Predict the 3D structure of the following.
Amino acid sequence: MFKGLGNLASLMKQATELSGKMEDLTQELKGKRVTGSAGGGLVTVEADGTGMILKVTIDPVLLQDNDLEMIQDLLPAAINSATQKGKQLHMQMMQQMTNGLPIPGLDAAFGKMMGEIMPDDEKE
């Protein structure tokens, strides 16, 4: 009757440890940097590992040509590139942190985070 309580206590302990590790991971991600670019480097975006945009660099050539439309096209592409790289970094660090822990649905969550399409039998 009480066998299951030992497993439950172990899971609760792991969940508490994981919560603390998540806070540490978030702090570590804030210190990491990813860069996305578009137009062969004409627009570059730097973000931290949590996805916060830190810096945008626009090649002066685009400004000299007054090519506002090109800037408006390249900027979202560079932001999306940096954001995707930040998600990949986050996923890699999460997988390292949770290695060996049996967390139901973790692979599906990583897939959603990366925008992967899941087969119908894995959708919620």
Notes: The beta strands are 33-38, 43-48, 53-58.
